[in-house]
């Protein structure tokens, strides 16, 4: 995706949270409502030890911080919120200069790749006791914060963005299908079935299966057992078939006029959620808020599993730069903030989807339903998806390469030859990595 996404807030709040995201110019994930270039600061508590905490987005952590400092009166937390890109740029500048870094820094899950070569600038949380809480998190989320060798962990996971299939019940019914989540899941268990249903929907209704080929590619890419790099940072895109298969599968949809070429996050793209011009959207948990804001009619959109598994899009980690003079106190706080009990509160209050599977067994989570999506237990659908994600090493150059492939997909959607675009992409990738 290109520029912006909206992180879903809890349905009872019906709030959309603006954020920079997705692969373009290094922008990815993390909820945000902050004004670009502007930093807000709030000092909470009156203890002798002050922890400076850099965050982006509207996380609701200020409320949890109030709870923490009340229980730990020796701690003060200076919470500084800024635009996601600005925060990551400022953090990179600070650790490069070895001055000015905070005690705690939130790093978006895709941006973590940017810091892979800067381990010395962060505390290894294994040295602070992170091994004791490792089992509290989904394995694949934890792995995303580890070094390639597995002996260094950058941060503790906060929220995640498991992907599912949002779909229009009215379009499925118009095409003659049962539109219940169970029926749609059984109808489309595989990607072959997804394409077959896309053809039937187009023939019966004249409507597209999805709005943009990019979301199809993302879904197939994120289910691959390997993507662009191995753990030695060697390019493997041309050595195994899964990425090329994802690319060709997307191109097939363009060839059959089954997918739109509407750029994501444009007014036309948002409008399509309301006008029923396409049947499905392959997207993460936070997309709930986007759909609600742009298609306000209840009961039209529903949610079910994606074909052949799930992926993840979004989330963040809480890190402790090595410059901190209070690393132990900072670790005590972030281990509390990311514990299952606090993750449940963040989910119920702000819609941040938990990375701690223990939350998925809690009654308030299990019984959570959303009238907007037909009263289905949305939390359970997303938790099932979260547990299907395949851990994949991305590498520090991941998003530069992903942008090149996305550009090729855009060109194919405009009518260019898929093979020529693929070949040109590989040439561009070689030039990028040779710099």
UniProtKB/TrEMBL annotation:
Protein name per the record: Sugar transporter
User: Is Signal among this UniProt entry's keywords?
Assistant: yes
Q: Name one Pfam family in it.
A: SBP_bac_8
Q: Which domain of life is it from?
A: Bacteria
Identify the keywords attached in UniProt to this record, alphabetized: Signal, Sugar transport, Transport
Q: Which organism is it from?
A: Alkalicoccobacillus plakortidis
What range does the record give for the signal peptide?
1-19
